[in-house]
Amino acid sequence: MKFKRNYLFIPLFAISLGFTACSDDDDNIDPDPILDPTGSLAVEDQMLESNMLTINNVSMSADGWVVIHRDNGSGGPMVPEIISVPQMVEAGESMDVMVQLKEGETVEDGETLWAMLHTDDGIIGTYEFNGSNGLDAPIMDEADNVVTQSFEVSVAPMGTLMVEDQEMTNNVVNVASVSFDRGGYVVIHASNDAGDGPMVPEIISEPVYLEAGTYTDVEVPLTSSANVEAGDTVWVMLHTDTGEEETYEFDGENGLDMPITDADGNVVVKPLTITSVTVVAITGSLSVEDQAVTDNQLNVGSVELSESGWVVVHASNEAGTGPMVPEIISEPMYLEAGTHEDVMVTFTESANVAVSDTVWVMLHNDTGVAEMYEFNGINGLDLPIIVDGNIVVTSVEITE
For residue range 112-133, what is the model confidence (pLDDT) as tens digits? Predict the structure, then answer.
């Protein structure tokens, strides 16, 4: 991007060097033209902190402005709009110039921004550049290029959390509300020995992964070894998702999946007291007959659930002796607690079910995010329902 320079030339008049005396006007002539302001800047990729960005070095031949532009998507700054409060910089060299984003302006993690130098003309001390009025124009270098530099900004993960003291049923803790600005984890830590904070890095729950968004009534299953009793306090904490995606890796030393902190640098963690512990058997049953597939759907004749859960279809394993898990070949069908007749379950487009194939219909519970099927065989969420020690599953042969 280039802007036209405006030069002010003062004409030089011929001066007689003979015996003719110089006039008074000749004595006031300045032989040097007024030069455009010059400058340079250096800026590094950085973390946005308190809505402030740091320009590492600024050098200006005259007082001027440092501003931040967004990227235009084509490898340059978007002008004339700026997203920062114009920062006046005095002539000379300045280190670590702090530039604040305008109120209401936000940036995304990994976004590219552009720092740029502008002159200060027109009304001195008032930033007036609008791309057309010729005021406070970008400063140019010797090659007639705008003095600007791009950098990448990182934004610390953000999240909020609300919990309540509660009765715990079936080793599952209900987290009233969670919000993330990007994917992360809800986990539960036990209390430390002093009882005034969480014991880290160990967790006593399955790590529940959530995409960016706001969630209510997130069901977090405790591990079988948690041994939480009535009167115990546990600590619900939010963690980032770095390293391998959707794999919880926080160990307190490797720098991965770290706890999320708020604007004041405090870990987002909340205590809650378990007021009572109860165990209620989750039961379920299903009945389904061998059948032909119609409209890419399977008819499950009858389903009974003591709690809300899922009906899904798994393919047969290679031996043909049971279901292949955790993969499913149907859309998960969510059902409220109760009895349901003729439940139509739709196969996925990639299921490729053919005549004489055997598929397996299975019931799963609903933990983690309500009404979101999350079973992957590892995370402890939406597990198969077990009655009398056996998974509730039945085989179905696909007929003509």
Answer: 999 999 999 999 999 999 999 9
